[in-house]
Amino acid sequence: MPPLVLIVEDETILGDSISTYLERHAYATTVARSGEDGVRLAGEASPDVAVVDIRLPGMDGLEVLRKVREVSPGTEVVMMTAHASVASAVEAMRRGAFDYLTKPLDLEELRVVVDKALTNLRMRRELSYLRARD
C-alpha cells in the first residue's frame, strides 16, 4: 500500500497540483480545502504525512498542526506558506512540524521532504517496536 499524504490547501489549483504530482511518484493522496476538513480526514485516515498551508480560512495551519498531532500522533506534518517569516517557521517547528516550505512551492523539493518525513516515520516506528520487545 502506498504511503498516504494528506494535503490541506485552500487554493484548489495548488492542492490538486500537489496531489497529482505526488500520485505520479507512487503516493496515495487526499486533499482537504479547510483546516477543519484536514483535521477530520487526519482522524479518519491516519495519513503518513500531512502537508498543511499555514494560511487557511477558519482554522489556521498552526492549529491544524496541533490538532493533527492529537488525532493522528504518528503523522509527520510539513508546513507551507507564501508568507514566510522566521517567527512562523520557528513556531511551526516548536509545535512539532517536521519541516517548513515556502511558496511558490518547488514540487521536487516537496517530494524530497515527504520522502525524508517517511524515512523519519519508519525509524520512529521501528524504534517503538524494538523498545516494546525489550
Description:
The protein is an alpha/beta fold. The protein is built from 5 helices and 5 strands. The protein has helices spanning 12-24, 35-45, 61-71, 86-94, 107-133, and strands spanning 4-8, 28-32, 49-53, 76-81, 99-102. The chain is globular, with a radius of gyration of 14 Å.
Task: Give a short summary of the structure.
The chain is of the alpha/beta class. 53% of the residues lie in helices and 19% in strands.
Instruction: Report the helical percentage.
Output: 40-55%
Topology, number of strands: 5
Count of helical segments?
5
Give the end-to-end Cα distance, rounded to a whole number of Å: 29 Å
Q: Could you tell me the radius of gyration in angstroms?
A: 14 Å
- What is the multimeric organization of the chains shown? single chain
Biggest β-sheet strands, sense, barrel: 5 strands, parallel
What is the element layout, followed by pairings?
Blueprint: E1 4-8, H1 12-24, E2 28-32, H2 35-45, E3 49-53, H3 61-71, E4 76-81, H4 86-94, E5 99-102, H5 107-133
Parallel strand pairs: 1-2, 1-3, 3-4, 4-5
